[in-house]
Amino acid sequence: MVTRHVDLRSDTVTKPTEAMRVAMANAEVDDDVLGADPTAYRLESEMAKLMGKEAALFVPSGTMANLISVMVHCDVRGSEVILGDNCHIHVYENGGISTIGGVHPRTVKNKTDGTMDIAEIEAAIRHPDGELYYPSTRLICLENTHANSGGRCISVEYTDKVGEIAKRHGLKLHIDGARIFNASIALGVPVHRLVQAADSVSVCLSKGLGAPVGSVIVGSKSFITKAKRLRKTLGGGMRQVGVLCAAALVALRENVKKLEDDHRKAKILADGLNQIKQLSVDMSSVETNMVYFNILDSSVISPEKICEVLEEHGVLAMPASAVSVRLVLHHQISESDINYALTCIKQAVDQITTGATTK
């Protein structure tokens, strides 16, 4: 019988803290669709100020936040967005920018650090002379941190360069900043500076910050006015949303400072995994709260099998590829949890390899 649970599938699995529950119970609310919810207003104002933008908008999810942002910038159907081939918008958001937004994705290969080659981005921009044949480029998207690259941070210098390209060609820049506060803490750069070059940013509240629900979009006042209309169109206009925003305000005020400890614990976990001879972690890739470990002999140990055995011990993880597993830290994972997970991972590896040898 499993007596301990350590959930490392994602930083989306946090439970609301007691302070969040109290804030939700006591939240001052009104109808946000009518623009009257005071707690939503406080959250949006605080986030806009933190990010150095004019205005902000609370939405139910990060996927909706990115979809709205892309659609505002690409308001003519058949427009084109340049984005990484391994980014969240392109891989994990159900093709919404195409199926709902009528926006064509033009992918550029993501490098191992999550960036795209600057020259390749510029080369992907369509020349206006070809508008009879090609989609019109209107937007460039970045992701920071870059999840599929292991939670790697995109530097302010790189972001500024991409912003310069966008301006030079009359394009907009959107940052999928689901974990932008992780990047800010890891890089030691204020979050407003990290997104200064962006015309819009989506910020997830329910990942590392630990709120139960929601994301916020930030940008100019005119951008947010258009975003609000699209939120309603997509079914994201909610009523007494201050109940959710109250928890998000607690997360924003109390949990940003905890991210540094998440990053520290991720390095402890990665170092421990490297002590297990059948596994390998590229320590240089562990910049924030994500750890990807590679299985050196995947013919014997598959990611699916190791996750299955771990679950029997109450440790939850996610296969990331045919040869790797993803583990994600958050503020409700303790060092004791990490030590327990490492013990279980070693036992799982031994169990699988011994079983394979004796068959």
Automatic annotation (TrEMBL):
Enzyme class: lyase
Modified residues (N6-(pyridoxal phosphate)lysine): K207
Catalytic reactions on record: L-threonine = acetaldehyde + glycine; L-allo-threonine = acetaldehyde + glycine
Keywords: Lyase, Pyridoxal phosphate
EC number(s) reported in the record: 4.1.2.48
InterPro entries, per database record: ArAA_b-elim_lyase/Thr_aldolase (IPR001597), Low_specificity_L-TA-like (IPR023603), PyrdxlP-dep_Trfase (IPR015424), PyrdxlP-dep_Trfase_major (IPR015421), PyrdxlP-dep_Trfase_small (IPR015422)
Biological or metabolic pathway of the protein: Amino-acid degradation; L-threonine degradation via aldolase pathway; acetaldehyde and glycine from L-threonine: step 1/1
GO cellular-component term (any): cytosol
Domain Aromatic amino acid beta-eliminating lyase/threonine aldolase, first and last residues per copy: 7-294
Cleaved signal peptide residues: none
Stated family: Belongs to the threonine aldolase family.
Function per UniProt: Threonine aldolase involved in threonine degradation to glycine. May play a role in the removal of L-allo-threonine.
Name this polypeptide is given: low-specificity L-threonine aldolase
Gene giving rise to this polypeptide: LOC120276387
